[in-house]
Amino acid sequence: MKTLSRRAWILYALAALFVAGLGILFYTFWSNADDWAMRHANRHLYAGDTLTAAGSITDETGAVLAETVDGDRQYNDDRDVRTATLHVVGDSEGYIATGVQTAYQEELTGYNFVDGVYDVKRYGKGNDLQLSVNADLCVTAYDALGDEKGTVGIFNYETGQLVCVVSKPAFDIANKPTENINNDTTGEYEGVYMNRFFSGLYTPGSTFKIITAASAIDNISDIDDQRFRCTGSYGIDGGSVKCLGTHGTIGFERALNVSCNSAFAQIALQVGTENLTATTNALGFNQRYTLGNIRLAQSRFDLSEASQLDLGWAGVGQYTTLVNPCHMLMIVGAIANDGQAVMPYLVERITTQNGDTVLEAETTLGAQMFSESTAARLQELLRSNVENYYGDRRFRGLEMCGKTGTAEVSSEEGGDDPHAWFVGYSQREDLPYAIVVVVENGGGGSSTAIPVANEVMQAVDDLYGE
Length: 466
Ligand SMILES: [Zn+2]
Description:
This protein has helices at residues 2-38, 79-84, 86-89, 100-103, 105-109, 118-123, 135-144, 178-182, 196-199, 209-219, 252-257, 261-282, 308-315, 325-336, 372-390, 445-464; strands at residues 57-58, 64-69, 72-75, 128-131, 150-156, 162-168, 228-230, 233-236, 239-242, 248-250, 290-291, 294-295, 340-342, 347-351, 357-360, 365-368, 400-407, 419-426, 433-439. It is of the alpha+beta class.
């Protein structure tokens, strides 16, 4: 008995060691496998520092944006397309973190944990990736920004398909001006490796009044009966929130139309810190969003140390609040979609070289950001802004709803002129697209951002409208 039990014990001990050994091996492989396979020294995947074994990248129409031909990474024939799609495609060195050549590098090279670099060995390259964007639309948007820095993003707010994502400045990936970028003293290439749509954070200015208005609709029962007096500024605790004009005595809707800071500071004080914070939390501020492999910069709203005067400024989008453009697009899309947010997506499809689908985009619901009734009221208000203030002639045939912003920026944010914003959407049933435009230091939202939004939305209408 004694001998047997000792032998059994030794066997158990050996078995335990074996299992532990496997565990260590498995863990080591699991934690390092990506590095081993993706190491630049791995000649199956890389020659020099380029993605020679990556599959092709196409736009929604199948137009090739990047492909590997005889071991060479090549890009679209058209310089304008290469430049306008730089940030969604990504550079070959991996500086543009949210570009799919970096964020989807494993998928593009066909590397996966189970098969290793199986596809590459068999077919000479990895998976093909189709983007949701339309390259021509990206060119239109990039050109519409003119000489200014900024971003334009458009998505279908019912399906989540991002059809346009551009960030400026960019460069022609086939002729990268490395010297100019490295020795840039004029700021021409400032933030060139950042996709401002996914990674940018901006002071929202008056576009934030949409959010203050939502909180007012939810928390102030007689908001539509109230009158606000604007003498050009509104005094709070010895300071004041200033207006761009003198708006006289106006109601809630008119206050949003003319973007009256005095009225919206009064509204923010009535809503109060707690309610305004609750509204922003419901809309996903201070929350991390990921779209597939792409992380969005996190929008910030924090009134924890705000005075009453700060609360007034926060209500008009001029406190410490920062908003990511893609997040703002989700918010305005949720208004258009009766309160229900839909998650934007950039990757339409990933297929292996023998035609198997690895990933296919599907519509993913986000939070119910607004109640249906609040969304319905906001739809009326945003429509009223265009109909009664900006003018439908500035968006001919589009039936646009929206809000401009002229966001004053601190010197750290890069300049004296304010950022120009427009966020909005078409209310036409055949055109369920929402748009965000930010023109950095572009001046007035109405004078600068509306013409950009109109030009690109007209192209959206040509492409998708009935
Ligand atoms: Zn005013």
